[in-house]
Amino acid sequence: MTKYIALLRAVNVGGTGKLPMSDLKTMCCDAGFAHVETYIASGNVVFESEAPPSRVRAELEDRLHAYTGKRVSVVVRSAPEMLAVLKANPFPKADPRYTYAIFLHEPPPSDALTHVSGQQDEEVRLGEREIFIHYPRGMGGSKLRIAVAKTGTARNMNTVAKLVDYVERRTCKPR
């Protein structure tokens, strides 16, 4: 069984996409995933499955669509892939609360940063299937726009580290 982390886009953020984590956990269990555990209410779930990542993503997106009546994008990473994201953080000395990885389905195009607008003091770097951003003054007042990031979902480095901890160092509780 492979340990996975699924990150849902636009769930329980800013009053949109309401989804109780207990319902998300039930969906995952009903999909046949094992040792399912959610982390905070923003759509993070860790579990084990024998299915390949593409099947895991499709299964979750289909169930979420049936539940919400709209498409909810899901990004899936294996435990080693999530650990690699944490280690690849190009801003290791920056406050992890203000350092984000925007998770994408595919690698960002090499010219992704040439299409950035509104950049002030933010630092931006491309990763394998992520875009890393350090917001020195926080994300709230930023006007930064990255066109390719519109389909991704962002998590700060504290959350990434906690998810790595969940799948690598803790035993997820069976449902």
Question: What can you see in these coordinates?
Answer:
The chain has helices at 21-30, 53-68, 79-88, 157-168, and strands at 2-8, 34-39, 44-49, 74-78, 99-103, 116-117, 123-126, 130-134, 145-146, 153-156. It is an alpha+beta fold. Strand 7 (123-126) and strand 8 form a beta hairpin. 30% of the residues are buried.
What is the level 1 CATH name of the largest domain?
Alpha Beta
Query: Segments where pLDDT lies below 50 for 5+ residues?
Result: none
Structural class: alpha+beta
CATH superfamily of the largest domain: SP0830-like domains
Helical coverage, percent range: 25-40%
Tally the beta strands: 10
CATH architecture annotation of the largest domain: 2-Layer Sandwich
The number of domains is: 2
Envelope shape: globular
Alpha carbon gyration radius: 16 Å
The biggest beta sheet is recorded as: 4 strands, antiparallel
Question: So how many helices?
Answer: 4
**CATH topology type of the largest domain:** Alpha-Beta Plaits
Strand order of the largest sheet: 2-3-1-4
- Listing every helix as H and every strand as E from the N terminus to the C terminus, the arrangement reads EHEEHEHEEEEEEH
Tell me the quaternary state.
Answer: single chain
In terms of DSSP E residues, the strand content is 25-35%
Provide mean pLDDT, rounded: 90
| First and last CA, distance | 17 Å
Please summarize what this structure is:
With about 180 residues, the protein is α+β, with helices and mostly antiparallel strands. It has helices at about 20-30, 55-70, 80-90, 155-170; strands spanning about 1-10, 35-40, 45-50, 75-80, 100-105, 115, 125, 130-135, 145, 155.
